[in-house]
């Protein structure tokens, strides 16, 4: 028997006892109820039966201290229009318009709308611009540039899909007796964290280009994904004159080249972190287990370790969510396809518009754009 059933039973017994004794006061004394309660129970029973005798809570609901909807909308609008403003500044801006709202009240609205941090407000602004095609104001541009600088300062890289940006770097492995100096060319897809590495006995522009030609681009071509841009430091193997081997190779493959800021190695921090991982998990162990007589021997074991790294080792990267780099690449490469389709659609719209520049023939066939 539930508690509610017990309460209803006591009330019915009170009514039955009063009817039997023909004395309401005596029945109330025996059952422990007041006369007011008896007559209330009697009225409820006569109008609604036993169900009407259920216990009704007298506690009033606590009404949330919410502001008017137009005020909340105003706070959200300020957050997206000026994401760099803090809660105190927003409170002051509202006061100029005759709206009194404390900084804590501003923050509570931010929390309800998932806008409590600068990054979230900035993301909301970018989403709004992409959706509505708005033109950014000067303050909004400053806020976005500030966010990008902070990301670079902490080693974060802006990336949108597999193939959007690859990071390449040179790592000095060490010196092997009888072999000489060994350098590793490293390449990482910054979105999926799929990594490639190849060993050389020198570091120059030719080996940097060979790394892409032998390891990286065949993989992207096999997956039917385009590599759009590469991030490197300003080393001589990546930067130079117009006839520089690496620069020429990127031009032939139509790959954009982005260089890190001078004396800012953290800008290419993804490679630095990978180098620490490969040093601790591969080289430090491999050189203690085995004596290598050639680069080719070491490359064989390195390739086996990379298979384990890409296919079996869970990664905690921003877009990996605990999955392996290769699975992340395969599961998200459709994003690159969508990006390419959007570009084709935009180009097609541009060529088909009445304002197309002279010399560009209008066409309704997308295949002619490729």
From TrEMBL:
Question: Per its record, how is this protein called by name?
Answer: Integrase catalytic subunit
Q: Name one GO biological process term.
A: DNA integration
Q: Which InterPro entries match?
A: Homeodomain-like_sf, Integrase_cat-core, IS481-like_transpos, Retrotran_Ty1/copia-like, RNaseH-like_sf, RNaseH_sf
What are this entry's molecular-function GO terms?
A: nucleic acid binding
- Superkingdom of the organism of origin: Bacteria
Ranges for domain Integrase catalytic = 158-333
Q: Which residues form a coiled coil?
A: none
> What Gene3D superfamilies does the database record attribute to this sequence?
Ribonuclease H-like superfamily/Ribonuclease H
Lineage of the native species? Bacteria, Pseudomonadati, Bacteroidota, Flavobacteriia, Flavobacteriales
């Amino acid at each position: 028997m539930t508690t509610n059933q017990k309460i209803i039973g006591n009330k019915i017994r009170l009514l039955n006892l009063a009817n039997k004794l023909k004395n309401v006061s005596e029945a109330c004394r025996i059952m422990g109820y007041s006369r007011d309660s008896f007559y209330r129970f009697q009225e409820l029973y006569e109008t609604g039966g036993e169900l009407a005798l259920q216990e009704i809570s007298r506690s009033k609901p606590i009404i949330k201290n919410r502001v008017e909807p137009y005020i909340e909308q105003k706070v959200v609008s300020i957050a997206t229009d000026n994401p760099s403003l803090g809660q105190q500044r927003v409170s002051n801006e509202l006061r100029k318009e005759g709206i009194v709202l404390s900084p804590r009240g501003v923050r509570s609205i931010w929390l309800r709308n998932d806008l409590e941090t600068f990054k979230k407000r900035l993301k909301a602004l970018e989403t709004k611009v992409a959706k509505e095609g708005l033109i950014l104001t000067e303050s909004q541009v400053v806020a976005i540039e500030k966010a990008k600088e902070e990301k670079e300062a902490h080693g974060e890289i802006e990336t949108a899909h597999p193939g959007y940006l690859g990071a390449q770097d040179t790592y000095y492995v060490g010196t092997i007796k009888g072999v000489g100096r060994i350098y590793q060319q490293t390449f990482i897809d910054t979105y999926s964290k799929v990594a490639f590495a190849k060993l050389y006995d020198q570091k120059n522009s030719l080996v940097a280009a060979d790394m892409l030609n032998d390891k990286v681009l065949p993989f992207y071509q096999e997956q039917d994904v385009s590599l759009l841009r590469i991030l490197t430091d300003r080393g001589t193997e990546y930067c130079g004159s117009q006839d520089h081997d690496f620069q020429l190779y990127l031009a032939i493959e139509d790959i954009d080249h982005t260089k890190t800021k001078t004396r800012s190695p953290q800008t290419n921090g993804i490679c630095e972190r990978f180098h620490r991982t490969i040093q601790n998990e591969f080289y430090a162990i491999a050189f203690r287990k085995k004596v290598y007589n050639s680069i080719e021997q070491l490359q064989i074991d390195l390739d086996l370790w990379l298979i384990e790294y890409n296919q079996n080792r869970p990664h905690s990267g921003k877009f990996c969510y605990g999955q392996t780099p290769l699975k992340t690449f395969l599961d998200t490469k459709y994003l690159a396809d969508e990006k390419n389709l959007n570009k084709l659609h935009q180009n097609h719209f541009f060529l088909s518009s009445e304002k197309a520049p002279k010399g560009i023939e209008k066409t309704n066939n997308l295949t002619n754009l490729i």
